[in-house]
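hey
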C-alpha cells in the first residue's frame, strides 16, 4: 500500500492558494497535487479543489462542507465520516473510494464515477466504492455510476437518482423516502429490507 504523506497546515495553505490561482488562470498558479496526502480532519470548508489530484488521499473526518471538487480525482481515497454537506462533486472520480458514514446531504454528485476498482493486485480483486451508512439526503446523483457500490443502510431521503447506475449494488436497508428513481438501473442490486422504494415507469428494478 502506498504510504500516506503528512502535510503541514502551512504547506496545505500554500497548495490551496496556488490552486485557486490555477483555477482562475492567473500567473503563478499550480494545480493541487495531493495524491496520498493525509488530510484527515482538515478544514476545507468552501474551498475550491476542482480538478485537484487527491488520488488515495486520507480525508477521514475532514470538514468539506460546500467544497468544490468538480472533476477532482479521489480515486481510492478515504473520506469516511467526512462532512461533505452541500459539496460539489460533479464528474468527480471516486472509483473505489470509501465514504463510510460520510455526510453528503445536499451534495451534487452529477455524473460522479463511483465504480469499483477492477483487477487489483495479483489476484485481480475488484474493490467497490463504499458508502455504507452515509447520509445522502437531498443529494443530486443523476447519472452517477455506482455499479457494485456498497450502500447498505444509507439514507437517500429526497435524493435524485434519475438515470443513475446501481447495477449489482448493495442497497440493503437503505431509505428511499421521496427519492426520484426515474430510469435508474437496479439490475442485480440487493434490495433486502429497503424502505419506501417506488419504481417509476421507465425504471429498471427488481
Amino acid at each position: 500500500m502506498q504510504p500516506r504523506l503528512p502535510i503541514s497546515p502551512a504547506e496545505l495553505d500554500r497548495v490551496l492558494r496556488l490552486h485557486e490561482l490555477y483555477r482562475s488562470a492567473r500567473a503563478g498558479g499550480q494545480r493541487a497535487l495531493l495524491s496520498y496526502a493525509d488530510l484527515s480532519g482538515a478544514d476545507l470548508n468552501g474551498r475550491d479543489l476542482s480538478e485537484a489530484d487527491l488520488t488515495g488521499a486520507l480525508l477521514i473526518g475532514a470538514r468539506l462542507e460546500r467544497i468544490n471538487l468538480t472533476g477532482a480525482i479521489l480515486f481510492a481515497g478515504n473520506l469516511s465520516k467526512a462532512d461533505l454537506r452541500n459539496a460539489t462533486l460533479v464528474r468527480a472520480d471516486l472509483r473505489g473510494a470509501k465514504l463510510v458514514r460520510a455526510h453528503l446531504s445536499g451534495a451534487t454528485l452529477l455524473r460522479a464515477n463511483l465504480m469499483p476498482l477492477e483487477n487489483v493486485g495479483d489476484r485481480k480483486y475488484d474493490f467497490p466504492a463504499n458508502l455504507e451508512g452515509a447520509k445522502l439526503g437531498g443529494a443530486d446523483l443523476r447519472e452517477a455510476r455506482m455499479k457494485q457500490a456498497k450502500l447498505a443502510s444509507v439514507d437517500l431521503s429526497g435524493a435524485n437518482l434519475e438515470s443513475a447506475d446501481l447495477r449489482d449494488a448493495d442497497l440493503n436497508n437503505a431509505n428511499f423516502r421521496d427519492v426520484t428513481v426515474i430510469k435508474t438501473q437496479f439490475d442485480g442490486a440487493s434490495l433486502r429490507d429497503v424502505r419506501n422504494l417506488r419504481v417509476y415507469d421507465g425504471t429498471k428494478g427488481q
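The two ends are 38 Å apart (CA to CA). The first strand starts at residue 5 and ends at 6.
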